[in-house]
Amino acid sequence: MSVRKLRVVLAGVAVAFVAACTSAPAPTYPDVTWRHLAPITFAAGPVEKVAAYSVGGANELEGYLPFSLGRMAMRWPDDRVQTAGTTDILRYSVTEASITSSALKTTKGVRGVFTDDQSERIDLKISVKLDVLGANGTQKGEAIASAARSRTLAQSMSVAERESAIYDETAALLKDIDLELERQINANLGRFLLR
To answer: What's the pTM value of the predicted model, to 2 decimals?
Structure first.
């Protein structure tokens, strides 16, 4: 083998080695849960869950992220609601779960090369509804809660840093909706609670 071929082979091995050492495993994001919180106990029967939100609108990021705001929000009654069977039914609906992205104006030209602008705004929104229904399906009460958050992302952030920042906002938003929904339940569905 010639010296030139040997150099090419060694260079290829070195590049492969460096790539293997620097490639990090894809990060995993845990589901947000509410199991650590005290349950809310209703004098009602089973809990129905309805995913009534749409996915895939303009600038929607939900399908591109390694976690799902809507799917995590659907877990809320599993962690927070207990029932002490009557013929009434609880229906929990996630009516909106969106994470959208909007481009922001950035510095152009040579100056832009040396400027780390905020290049993207992420808007997160969640809306949920909890209905108490009689055995015949008539509505006896409802609690509606909504929450929203926004965050800007810097041009220099890597894909992993962007995902992590969006996940942090998602987790905070889900904590917000839990607090608001509990407040709405106490205000509007108190007569159905077992205290």
So the answer is: 0.81
